[in-house]
Each structure stands twice: as structure tokens, then as C-alpha cells.
Amino acid sequence: MESEFCVVCGATGRPLTDGVCAECAADRTALVRAPEHAVVVICPHCGARKVGAQWERSGSSPLLTADDLAPLLRVHPEVGIRRIRWEEVSATATVRDLVGTVDLRFRGIERTASVRLSVRTEHQSCTDCSRKSGRYYTAVIQLRGGPERSNEKSAALHARLDRIWSTLRAESRADWRSAVAWTEELPEGYDVYFTQTLAARAVAKLAKQRFGVRPKESASLFGRKDGQDIYRVTLCLRFPRDDGPGAERAASRATVEP
Ligand SMILES: [Zn+2]
Ligand SMILES: [Zn+2]
């Protein structure tokens, strides 16, 4: 073993791979490379990143960050990255030229490599956001006053439904809330549009448990896709006034519902 030497530099006493020491192998290997032109696709509305056909990391910064850069590097399988420092060389509105200084480990030795990266940022609405802006919806919750013939003033009704909706929102799961596309104010209450029918049903069920109302569900055909009928679901929720007829019934029902 001791007599073996690196075929490149002649050094002895170093671990060899195919007759070459790690130092020499590192010199002769591309440890970290960057693609010539990298593109990061960001949804300007929610900060999601497009990875392949999927959108990920919704809620991230809509600006390019170091988290976007590291995954763009092509790293040699025997390299472990320790740290990357990025320095901007030049930038236009959409393209940034950067130099990364990469501290890495390769076959037991520490190295620092330098890599140049040019990244173009592209803005595209993600699936969720474009559905929302395209007024796409699959379900609507109608928030209405009580079933009684009400003489409740419109402002009072809206203030009351506002409070109810705030409570429901606060107690909803985050994914139910993010399925709300938009809300419309009508003289008789509010319509809350959802991009996910299951989320709308979950919120209606929560309203039933929380306020003792009975959701009335109906469906209407709005199209066909892949040979299947597509329905939009309407969930009507009627909230009786606290002092109105039916309030007592609703309250007592609320306490017995699980
Ligand atoms: Zn060597
Ligand atoms: Zn988005």
C-alpha cells in the first residue's frame, strides 16, 4: 500500500482512487457546474415555484432567493456541499448573473469551487391563482339570514353574517381557507366561491357544528370533461337571528351536535 503513488502527482501515502489522489482528481473533475441558462418560474401572487409540472412552496418570497439557486447546480455525486455564498455580478429586470463560491467536501478533502450562474426569473400564475383569477369555482356557499320572513336591515344582516364568516374562517383549516376564490356581497347575504368542493363541504359542516344550521346542498351541471359531467355545488346556509324565531331551536341543536 505505502509503495503506491498517485499517477498524476507522484505523491505517496494518500488514498487513491483508480491510481489518482483526491487532490488531483478534484483538479481534474467538474465538482459543481451550473446550467448555461437557468430559469426559475415564480407565481407573482403566492410565491409558489414551478418544479417540473408541479407548483411547490406556495407562500415563499416572490423574489429570487438563495433557496432557488442551490437546486440549479449540478453537483458531482461524490461532492457534499457545505456552504454557498452568492455574489451578484450583474442584473437586469429578469436576468441575474451570479458567482457562487462553494465550500464542499470531495473524497475526504475540503475544497472551494467557484461557479457562474445566469438565472432568468419568469412570472406565471400558478394553477391555484389562475383558477382564482379566472373566476373558476366548483362550489359556492351562500350565507343568508334566517328562514323566517325577516325584517332585519341589510346592514345589520351583513354585519351579522360578517361575524359568522369570520368565526368560520378562523376555525377552518388552512387548506379550506386557501380554497376560497372570492366573495360576493349580495342584498340577501354573501356568496363565497370555492375552488375545492370538499373544502366548501367541510366549511358547511363546521357551520353546522358551530351554529346548528342545516346546510342545503344542490348541484348544477356546468360542463363535461373527459366524458364526465361536471357539477357545481351550492351549499345554502341560513343563519337565524339570535333573537329571531328559530334561534332557540338552532342554539339547542348546536349543543347536541357533536
Ligand atoms: Zn495526485
Ligand atoms: Zn400562486
Question: What does this protein structure show overall?
Answer:
The chain is α+β, with helices and mostly antiparallel strands. It has two domains: 30-128, no CATH class; 135-256, no CATH class. It is 25% helix and 39% strand. The chain is built from seven helices and 15 strands. The strands form five sheets. It has a five-stranded mixed beta sheet. The chain has a four-stranded mixed beta sheet with strand order 4-10-9-8. The radius of gyration is 30 Å and the shape is elongated. The structure holds zinc ion (2 copies).
Keywords:
258 residues; alpha+beta; 2 domains; 4-stranded mixed sheet; 7 helices; 25% helix; disordered C terminus
Contiguous low-pLDDT stretches (5 residues minimum) are: 246-258
Indicate the radius of gyration in whole angstroms: 30 Å
End-to-end CA span: 75 Å
Tally of separate helices: 7
Give the biggest sheet: 5 strands, mixed
* Rounded average pLDDT: 87
- Structural class assignment: alpha+beta
**Distinct ligands, ions and cofactors found in the model:** zinc ion
Instruction: Give the ordered list of helices and strands.
Output: EEHEEEEHEEEEHEHHEEHEEH
Strand content: 35-45%
Domain tally: 2
For the largest beta sheet, what order do the strands appear in spatially? 12-13-11-15-14
- State the share of residues found in helices, binned by percent: 10-25%
Number of strands: 15
Based on CA inertia axes, which overall geometry fits?
Answer: elongated
